[in-house]
Amino acid sequence: MEKYLNILRTCPLFAQIREDHLLRMLGCLGAKVVQFDKKYTILAEGKPAKYIGIVLSGSAQIMQMDYYGNRSLLAVSGPGEMFGEAFACAETKALPVSVIAEEPSDIMLIDCSHILHTCSNNCGFHQQLIYNLMKSLAVKNILFHQKIEITAKRSTREKLMAYLLLQAKKAGSDRFDIPFDRQELADYLEVDRSGLSAEISKLRREGILRSRKKHFELL
Amino acid sequence: MEKYLNILRTCPLFAQIREDHLLRMLGCLGAKVVQFDKKYTILAEGKPAKYIGIVLSGSAQIMQMDYYGNRSLLAVSGPGEMFGEAFACAETKALPVSVIAEEPSDIMLIDCSHILHTCSNNCGFHQQLIYNLMKSLAVKNILFHQKIEITAKRSTREKLMAYLLLQAKKAGSDRFDIPFDRQELADYLEVDRSGLSAEISKLRREGILRSRKKHFELL
DNA sequence: CTCTTTTTGTTGAAATTTCAACAGAATTTA
DNA sequence: TAAATTCTGTTGAAATTTCAACAAAAAGAG
Predict the structure, then answer these.
(1) Domain range A2-125, CATH class
(2) Measured between CA atoms, how close is B65 to chain A, in angstroms?
(3) Which of A45, B31, B52, B70 is 20 to 30 A from A204 in CA distance terms?
(4) Mind listing the pLDDT tens digit for each residue in A158-180?
(5) Whose CA is nearest the C1' atom of nucleotide D20?
């Protein structure tokens, strides 16, 4: 567990928690670490939503599929980031999403009820954890909000530009890499992949951007 | 303030708070009540996001507009429900949405920093409020999630049916009323109003539903 | 009750998206 | 390195959505 301390320190769930307390706390919470190979399912749709996941290495895609295979990519969590906490905190019966390892990943799983329902030795840590969860959930809300703002646009071009402008702003530069390949970007924007490729080419021809695979430059 | 107690009791922010403590707490939090006429702006896009709003009577629409007037309706809060808490809790600089009174409404506004940063007399209430906020944010996350699940569908018909099926499930009956008029439903589903009307007519002709204004019956 | 305003439904044309199929590039595997 | 697989860009046809304009219905105002 010690080898993960550096990454756990960056996890917002453990903000303001002293490092020497962290290890003991993990024991108290029953945290366990599981390794997943590329494309393996970390949490499966329909299963009880009891776990909070923390990416220790690799990355996790939160996705949803409808009855006829239309994939919707909701978010991607990288090292130090959490997933599943909204469903766990709301004590949802069945998970409406699947979480997939994008690459070989180490994932920490914590049974959320251990955080929500304070243990017998009413340690002050619980209060901090709940505060941290509240903060994280607020931020997640805002991320969802941004996704809605982007996908609410009516055309592929508008969605794409809204997304790229946001990425540029986040990167603080007109040159940046996105974390998606074409299919994933299409799934995130909720559009057709081939139409997305066509639109990117069009923007390139119009001199609005330059791009090569995951790298983009806005001109 | 007393006359609002009945509705405040139903607000998830005050879950598990004893009624006799509630009034004092509201004073401590600097809660104020403001009345808004129909279509008036309760919170304006771009302003600092410091307030949590609670609908005491009437209802509030959370909406967003892009540069060319495409409206997107994110959510509607009715009596006892909160709005703006995600932005306030995340301490967002500028509000990315506007909140509009759908009808004449009484709204309670609470400066969120009074909840987040515990006051000198470190009352146990703060802990409960933060726990309640955490729970509410988790639920809001799930609501956003449902909206994404609906609007991720590719056609007007699929979006509409996904929405109606969810409403039917929520109502526990195939006959139910929706809280939107046609334009609002179109704004929520992120589709064109006239196309939505046409689709509803088509579903009616196909014998899949019956509807009159805001009332729907799935057959 | 009448007049005005708002809401809803219809329509056809224009624009866009989706779909399916394929070819070339890039990457991975053996 | 060669072969196999995955990813990306292209294309044209079919399906859908948006847009604009209008008429009918319903709701609100005086």
Answers:
(1) mainly beta
(2) 9
(3) B70
(4) 999 999 999 999 999 999 999 99
(5) B194
